[in-house]
Structure formats: structure tokens, C-alpha cells
Amino acid sequence: MTRRRHRTPRSLLPLLLLGLAVALLSPRPAQSQSQAQAPRAAKAAPTANATTTTATTTTAAPRISSSTADRREFTTSPALSTEARILVQLLSQAHYNRDTVRSSSYIEVIKDYMSALDGQRMFFLKSDRDLFEKKHSTSLYWNVSRLGNIDAAYEIFSRYELRAHERVDWIFRNIDAALADLDSDDHHRIDRRKVEWPDSPAEADSLWLNRLKFELIAELLNKRSPEKAAEAVRTRYERLLKNLAETETSDVGEMFLATIARLYDPHTAYLSGDTFEDFNIQLKLELVGIGALLTVEDDYCVVKELVPGGPAALGGELKANDKIISVAQGEDGDFLEIIGLKLRKIVDQIRGEKGSTVRLLVQPGDATDPAARREVLITRDTVKLNSARAYAGLFQVPTGEHIAAPSGDATDHSPSTARTAPIGVITLPSFYGAAEEGGPDGEENSSATHDVARLIAQLQAQGIQGLVLDLRGNGGGLLNEAIDITGLFIPRGPVVQVKSYSGEIRVSSDESPTIAYTGPLAVLVDHFSASASEIVAGALQNYGRAIIIGDRSTHGKGSVQALEEMRRYVPQLARSGAKTGATKFTVQKYYLPNGDSTQRKGVVPDIILPSIEDHLPIGEAELPRALAWDEIPSTFFDGAPIDDNLLATLRDASLARQNSLEEFDYLRRNIDWFKQRQDEKLVSVNLEKRRARRDEDKALRKAFLAERKRLAALDYAYEEFWLSPPEERQTTTATKNADGTASVEIDEAATDAADDDALLAEADTTANVNDASRAEPANDSASPTREISDTLLASDGTEDSPASDDDDDLEEEEDDTGAYAKVDVHLKESLRVVADVIALGHDPSNWIHNAPPLTARTTP
Asked: Exposed, middle or buried: residue 764 (CB in 10 Å: 0-12, 13-18, 19+)?
């Protein structure tokens, strides 16, 4: 894959290169401290820039028959050792927050790294933390920064692996007893992320007994027999051990170095070569491969789905649910069996250069004979990830009546009976950049700005009278795309101010006088709208160009990151041709044209709507070591916030609807129910009590689904607009998951800014995928994210209501197969607000600066 070259800010590069050169050329001891204490076998390992750790930890807990955890040996490659030293040197010299991190701060890495492995704090013991902190607190910084020695990572991981093996053995020995004791009044704490590790093995056993009961009850409530429930739990933990056994040195190293990076702020990270490759795929919304979503089930690689328009889908031979047995390169290469391989290794075999061929030996998913095989030849090609591209809808919205309704008397209107106005909605999942190859059929590269401009033109051709820019769930992307998209709605002028570590302030402006859309505009946001989304929403709010609508605030990320490949600092890494890692680190903070930072506080909407997300622990302020809020002087720009009288009129009209419309009552009751469940930190492990709660929730869910179905009939009619051809289209949009819940994972991206800096404007709200203690109980998981998914019934925008998996007698809700979810309360209200603006614009007495409200200022 061709990658965009990322550059360090010019003012930093000489300093960084000098400092790193000194560090890399400094004499180093032949062995690290931990190497000197390692067994003889470890001393025979490579010593140039490599370190080796053997898992020889001991514990008072009972040992199990498998000795895998005792024999694991990790060796740091010369490249990884070098990258570790570069990472620390780079962060200590160039990070915006470098003054707050000292060598003594590295003691925090121990706890953070242990939490990355054991997020629910149930495998390790408190004594493990005490031991590792005592052993490594004073030496960790110097070992990593001077020697590239990350033996501490391997030692801690080995202890974790040993604890996991011991715990799984305990689970297998106690599962029958737990199954027979589901009538106690004990409880399981579903979220232990902020609780200390157990003091003793006995305390850990007590915690795990309730955890085990919790998981068994989840299976029983899913209508499994006791035997099947126990088998499902055993299988789950067997899979946990298998995943641990597949963990390689590079995986451990990446996790540990990423933990070091987060000492500086939550958006600084280390990316291994594989992760960096995936990062670039998300950046360009394309990859070269066959276009199939793969997973591993019981050691077999299974095709979950095909990317519409990809080589596999167009070829028609590979089908969903097919099992890939072997992979061969070219038309005559030998087959390599992939059963039991890690998914990453399988993907590396299947991806390749554009135009090359790959042969797959598959077991058809619909085959009745397990010995059936079929060979499939596919020519690799560019796979467009069009589910993340912008798309639009043209809604027919009742107008002329909402704003005139007296307080407390606002009513909804069926599209068939009310006068309507055509109002467009453009949904932008991320601020993506153009692919390095042209678009399909020779069309211009598809950047976010280019796509939004095309959709505006299509909507204007249909005669729209207003527009909603939907940025919900948009975690950011390219900074220059944020500036250019803002420029589609304003004449030239400042969009964002950027302040460096030295205090230097630079203003980035839209330089084009062309305005793509001049009419009434609203921007719809939520707590997951971050960084680049906040730049656009905040700038348009500063200019008074748009009314901002949504959750109580946006995410609150006001920092800019640079992305640096490690190969730039070590010529031998560049010459090797091997994948090398990268680091993403904060170099600047950004501010709105009026000087306000969005850091921590986010952008506060002009009209706030009730939202479940307001009651979730999300947002920048919830992240550890987040930078502080501040402000700088305003820059000059030709704009002002929305007129107070106009804003009061629009707010009053919206509040009247919020207090009278059924959909808002439905949403508030869902939120109240959700808050009640969220406040319950402990879950009963009494089977009968859980059954009673399940039946209560089922009845409530059934009533909510019936009400939702009735409210869906009042949704506004709309027409969809897509930029990708039908065969490349996905009915499930990027802002919704298959179960209807909001996506927590936010794609990240990087860009070359105007001065050649590699700048990022994105949010990191991804869940911790390394926490093996979240062992995926069916439908009743301990994972906080899944807990949200299971309890969420109403949609306040990006979500729709999931039906319960275990309710066979519950009428299934129809799938939302359109571009926009049903009963999207926030979107409908945003459309009504724009309709109010249109209605006010018909009376010149409501005009601002001789123009209808919320329209662009144009030069005569």
C-alpha cells in the first residue's frame, strides 16, 4: 500500500534528529539488568539491541497441569528495541505536555499496563502490583529510554498469563458447584475498572465465584440447559487461553509502549507496523485485498460478510459463512493451511498487491459434507470502504405551523396532511481524505469535502429550503478537511487557531470565497462528535452561520496530533523494507475563532435535547490525563453568534415540542429506565431474582417496541442520496451498529497540514480490546459497553431499539434498512428547528443584517 508521508513540524525536526542521534549512538551495556538475572537460555539470545525474558514467575496459588505459562519466552527484536528508545526520546522532546512527565512518572505505567491487560482487575492480585512497582519504579524510564529494554512488559504479561491459567483451572474445577448454588443473595459488581485488585487469593476466589454465577445465569436466561450453560462458559475460557497463547512479542511490546505513550495524554499512542497499516486504511477508506470481513471461530477462518463492490463480492464464488482452509499465492503457488492461525496472520496472507491473485481453498458454508472443498481464485483490487462515506437524505418536513404554535400546544404532523418543506440532511461519519488513486470511472478523488459538496449540489437540484449537517458519531479525521468543509458554508475567513508548546499561535483559514450552500443551516452533534467535528460545529456557531443542536456537549477534544513513522529516524529501519511502527503524539492545541478551547468542555449546543449519552461516562473530561481547558485572544472574523432574540424564539419553540410531543415523552421514559439500570452497580446472582427482573424488562421492552413501531409511522418521508453505486452500498450506515447501538469505536486519521505538519484532529474513545476478563457472556455481559447495548431501548439519534435475543415470543422489530434510523428523535427535532427558521425567514422583520436568519453573508 502506498502511504502518505508524514512530517514533523519544521521547528522540531533538527532538535529531534540531534537528540535521537545522540541517544542512538550512545554506548549501551551488553545486557539489561533483567537479562543479567535471566536463566542461561536467555543469555544465549541476541544481545545487539534485543532483550529476552523467560516466564519463570512463581505464586502461592495452585498450579495447573498446563505449563505453557512457565515456558513462554519473549525476545525483543533490534527494531522494536530501537523503536522503544525513539518513542521515549520523541515524546520527551516534542510532546505538547512534556513538562508534566518526569522519569518518576513512569511508575504509573505499571498500574496502567496491568489495567490494560486486566481491565476488570480480577486476575492480578494487589501483591503483584506492589511487587512490580517496587522492582521497576526507579529503573523503568532509563531501561526504555536508553537501552530499549522492555523486559518489564514481558515479566508482567507472564504473570498475567500465569494468573489466567490458574484462574481458568479454578473455574473448571468450580463450575459445577457454582451451577448448583444459584439461590444465594450474593451480587456481582459488573464494573471493577476503578476498584483495587484483590488483596488475597481467597478474596479473588470469592469475586470469581460470583462472576462465574453471573455468567452461568446469563446462559441460563438465554434458554440453555445447565449442561449447555456450563459448556458455553468452559468454551469461553478455553478461547481466552488460546488467545493468550497466540500473543506474540510484538503484541506485548505494542501494548506496553502504548501505555507509556498515554502518560502524556489520552490521545498519544504507539502503533505497531500492523496497526499503522490498518490506521492508513481507515484514513483513505480503501485497501487492496479481496473485500471480505473475516473472523476466527473454533480455529477456522470464517467469511462473515463480503464488502459490496469488492473483488470477492463481484466474483460471486466466495460466500458468507464459507470457511477458508488454505491460502495460495498466484495461480500456481502452494497452499498454506491456515487452520489455527491468528486472524492477523491470515489477513496478511490474503491481502497483497493490486492485480495479484490469491487462491482460497474453502469449505462451503452450505455444504452438508464437512469434507467438501472448493477452490476460489480472486484477483486483488482496491476495496472501497464506502460505508464510511458521506450520504444524504431529502426529507419532507411540515412547516409553517411549529413556530406559530402557542406554548404547550405544539403537535406532530403527518407528512400526508401537513404542508411540507424539502430539507436536506447530510451525514458525515468522518473527515476522511482522498485516496491516492482516482475515484471510480475516473471521477475526482473522494475526500470528505468533495463528497459533501457533491451532495449539497444534488440536494439543491431538488430545491431544498434548509440543510442539517449530521456529525453525530463523527470522531474526527483530517484537520484540513474540517477547514475546507467549514468553508463550504462561509466566505473566506478564520476557522481554527492552533497554539504550539512555545505559545506561538497560528490561524488556519478558509481561503476560498465560494460558498457551496447559503441557506438555513443546522449542525446536529452528540457526545461522540469530536475534534474535527467540534472545529466545524464551533466555527459555524462563532460565525452565527448555523444553529447547533444535540446532546449537552460534544466530546471535548481540543488537541492536535502529529503522526511520525519510526523509520524516519533510523535509516536501517527504512532500508530493511519491513513494517515499522509509528507514534501519534500531541503537538498543539486548537481554539475556535473567538479564542475558546473545546478541550474538555466541547461545543455546547444552542438547543439541547434529552439524550441517554448525557448519562454515560464518555467525553474528554472522563479520560485520564486529559489536557486542561484554556482560552486565547480572539482572532478577527466577520461573524457573530446567533442573535439572542432569534435564539430565544427557536429555543422556546423547541422546548414546547419537547414538553408535548409523544416521541420526547417516549425518549425521556427510556432515559429514566436506563439511568435506573446504570445506577445499579451490583447484579444479583440469584437465578429466580434474575428471571423475575428479566420478565419485568421483557414486558417493558415489548411495550416500548410497540410504542416505537407506532411512532415510526409518523416519521417524515425521505429520499436517499448516495455517492457510491448500489452494488457498493451498505444498508447499515457507519453511525449505527448492527444491534442499533451507537458505535463507540472512532476511526482516527492523519493529514499533512498547510505547513507540511502531519496533523490529526480525532478522538480516542475505543474500548479496551485487550481485557481478557471480559469473556463475552451471552446477552448479559460484564462489559459496560454491552451493558449499554442490552438496556438501550429508545433512540435519541444514532441508535434504534434492539429486540431481546432471548425473547422468542416477543414480536421482532423491523430492521432499519434505510439510510436513517426510525424514530430518530434528535434528527426529527433538528428538521423542525430548520423548518422554524424557514418560517421566520418569510417575515423580513426577523432578518439579520438584511438577510434571512441563519443564511450566509455574501458580498454584494
From this structure: buried
The long-range contacts involving 694-697, CB below 8 angstroms and separated by at least 24 positions, are 694/221, 694/806, 697/804
Paired strand residues for 608: 550
> CA 192, CA 121: separation in Å to the nearest integer?
6
Give the 3-state secondary structure percentages of the chain, helix then strand then coil, rounded to 5. Answer: 40, 15, 45
Rounded CA-CA distance 428/536 in Å is 12
DSSP 399-412: -SSTTTSPTT----
* Maximum Cα–Cα distance across the chain: 88
DSSP codes, 38-93: S-HHHHTS--SS--EEE-----SSPP-S--HHHH-EEE--HHHHHHHHHHHHHHHH
Tell me how far the alpha carbon of residue 799 is from its chain's centroid: 16
* pLDDT digits 0-9 by tens, 277-301: 888 776 666 777 888 888 888 778 9
Q: Count other C-beta atoms under 10 Å from residue 723's C-beta.
A: 21
Please state, in angstroms and rounded to a whole number, the distance separating the CA atoms of residues 816 and 473. Answer: 18
Range with lowest mean pLDDT among 239-253, 693-707, 811-825? 811-825
Rounded Cα distance, 665 and 669, in Å: 6
Rg of the Cα trace of the chain? 28
Q: What is the pLDDT of residue 192?
A: 93
Residues 6+ apart with CB under 8 A from 415: 396, 398, 716, 717
- Distance CA(479)–CA(754), nearest Å, equals 10
